[in-house]
Specification:
Helices cover about 25% and strands about 25% of the residues. It is α+β, with helices and mostly antiparallel strands. Strands 1, 2, 20, 23, 24, 25, 26 and 27 form an 8-stranded antiparallel β-sheet that branches.
Length: about 625
């Protein structure tokens, strides 16, 4: 069973480099572990273990460093959320001053509060937790009678009549149908001859017709109220009270205040499952996988003033000792490891040093991928390997694994792409492989990295060559030959990574309208990094190699010295293509530079270029 052989080895243990987080707060010891367990976290279904930890789209970094590690003596808070490249950007910079409010940062247009930023007392930043908060249930239904089958009996489907208002026309009525498991959204006939094998034991209970019910409790939150409370918060208790009001999406929120405290709190509504992990749809006729309640927000991981003096999160596994299920879809540990190691050895940190961390291009993932290259080179020299393959392997061996602008970085990504394909495509078949590759998005499924430490894994064997069994060294040589050929044909043997990987700022109003592209679009903008560097500039696996998910905002706060806050946006602040602020920050952004963001009334007045006064009629 190749899947079983590719279970992650100990060396691919996410989070071990990042000490686990526990709850802390007023009246509790810093770093105290969760004591009220929602239940043990179950394992993945058999045969799917090789996907753990899963590949995921999106990502971000945030961290806080205690003042005694900083040259200024004040805490540092940093955040750079990574989102799909949009133009104009998703964020709009805002300084909001009103009764009881003086808060600055970025917001989403139309949102009346700051999403990421600081007020006069506290600062905060967010990354996605990736919590698993959605489950599907396969329901056996009799739609004409509006019934569904559950635990041996037929039950009435709950029907709610509602409507969608339509401007200038009658409202559009529709019905929402719900079972005990959630909202029904699809009803199809099941072709049992071609159904997945794991469904076969349930054929008698499910029957010939099925419907999917979705359980998702995101609608239960109060987002506007939560952000208002966060914007007004002035202390750790007020901050955590605000965070507990966030329902979705679940976030890792770091905190620092002018009193010198640093902290972390996880937000979101997480389910308590009676069984399973929600990876596959559950059989709705039996009650398996049903939700028995919600985990109390105050019981989610928290940390205040840890002895080590810093906290980081990069969508990685945040707490291995917390016994409830958050997700099985953690991001790979490479970004968090680089940050954790840098902070662990740093003292008297200057803001410039923190900026260098945020723009680090250390290729820890590349070092892992190339960990077996010495053996591959030795095997290639002994065998009949293609000369171009050997040259490629030797170049990659000599490379320092920094994802900067050099052509060798392009060669590496061509090699890694070929390694992926040569390893998995023969077993999966091209249609499944392409679908899986697209689903993987910016990060490759961790199965590839998991098996790299198993030189004789079944996955390396090409099932089309019956006469022999290939090993990791063989596939490295084949992938190197593929990479060398693509490098020669596609890039003339000299494709700088910053050019191959350039970010393209495409405005939706110019989509499919070439005559408007000159007015609305910008770029290409050369950038370094990849999907696993701290300066994360990932690309879509099916449309390599243009930067696709990027730092959508960078903030660095010397907490309390607010007028020296360092920030930058990709592109610019304005959405008007004729404005000088449409693209004026982009050169700073791509080069890892920043601009000052004034906060005090005097600093804002000194920096003001013009004033727009809106008066009520």
């Amino acid at each position: 069973n190749p899947a079983a052989s590719a279970a992650p080895p100990p060396s691919f243990d996410e989070g071990t480099e990042v000490p686990a987080l526990g709850p802390a707060g007023p009246g509790g010891a810093a770093g105290e572990r969760v004591s009220a367990s929602p239940g043990s976290a179950p394992s993945w279904p058999p045969g799917l273990e090789w996907l753990h930890p899963g590949a995921r789209r999106g990502g971000s970094n945030n961290w806080v460093v205690a003042g005694d590690r900083m040259a200024s003596g004040r805490p540092l808070l940093a955040n750079d959320p990574h989102l799909q490249l949009e133009f104009p950007g998703v964020w709009y910079e805002m300084h909001l001053v009103a009764a009881g409010l003086d808060v600055i940062g970025v917001t989403v247009p139309g949102t009346p509060f700051v999403v990421l930023g600081h007020n006069a007392r506290i600062a905060w930043g967010m990354t996605n937790t990736g919590a698993d908060v959605q489950d599907l249930f396969i329901e056996r239904v009799d739609l004409p009678s509006r019934r569904y089958f559950y635990q041996g009996q037929w039950h009435r489907i709950q029907v709610t009549e509602t409507s969608i208002p339509v401007r200038g026309a009658a409202a559009e009525p529709f019905e929402v149908w719900r079972t005990r498991h959630g909202t029904l959204f699809a009803e199809v006939g099941l072709d049992w001859e071609n159904a997945p094998a794991w469904l076969s034991p349930h054929r008698e209970r499910i029957g010939e017709r099925r419907a999917f019910a979705l359980r998702w409790d995101a609608a239960g939150g109060e987002m506007a109220g939560a952000f208002e409370a966060l914007n007004r918060a002035g202390s750790w208790p007020e901050f955590t009270a605000a965070i507990e009001r966030f329902a979705a999406p679940s976030q890792n929120v770091v905190y620092a205040d002018v009193d010198g405290n640093i902290g972390y709190a996880m937000s979101g509504v997480l389910p308590q499952r009676s069984s399973g992990v929600g990876i596959l749809p559950s059989d709705g006729t039996t009650g398996e996988g049903a939700w028995s309640g919600r985990i109390a927000p105050a019981a989610l991981p928290r940390l205040l003033n840890p002895p080590r003096g810093f906290i980081t999160s990069s969508n990685n596994h945040i707490d291995r000792q917390w016994s409830g299920l958050i997700t099985r879809d953690w991001a790979a540990p490479y970004r968090s490891t680089v940050l954790h190691q840098a902070m662990g050895r740093a003292t008297h940190v200057a803001l410039a040093t923190a900026a260098s961390w945020q723009n680090d291009v250390t290729g820890l993932a590349a070092a892992h991928v190339l960990g077996g290259i010495d053996r591959a080179i030795a095997s290639a020299r002994q065998g009949q390997a293609d000369r171009s393959a050997l040259n490629t392997l030797e170049q990659l061996q000599a490379w320092d694994k920094r994802i900067d602008g050099r052509p060798v970085v392009t060669l590496y990504h061509l090699f890694e792409d070929a390694l992926w394909r040569r390893t998995f495509a023969d077993e999966m078949g091209e249609p499944l492989f392409s679908h899986f590759y697209e689903w993987a998005g910016a990060e490759r499924p961790a199965g590839l990295y998991a098996i790299l430490d198993e030189p004789s894994s079944h996955w390396f064997d090409d099932i089309g060559t019956i006469e022999r069994r290939e090993t990791r060294a063989d596939v490295y040589a084949i992938a190197a030959a593929d990479a060398a050929e693509r490098f020669r044909v596609d890039y003339g043997g000299d494709g700088a990574w910053t050019d191959v990987h350039a970010a393209r700022f495409a405005h939706p109003l110019a989509a499919g309208m070439a005559p408007l592209a000159w007015l609305f679009n910008r770029g290409p903008s050369p950038v370094a990094g990849d999907g696993y560097t701290v300066m994360r500039m990932s690309y879509n696996r099916l449309r390599p190699f243009a930067a696709w998910e990027v730092p959508s905002w960078r903030q660095l706060f010397d907490v309390g010295n607010w007028d020296e806050a360092q920030v930058v946006l990709p592109g610019g602040q304005s959405g008007h293509p004729l404005s000088r602020h449409y693209f004026d920050q982009n050169e700073m952004w791509r080069l890892g530079q920043y601009r000052r963001q004034p906060f005090s009334r005097s600093a804002v007045g000194a920096a003001r270029a013009h004033r727009l006064l809106l008066l009520p009629l």
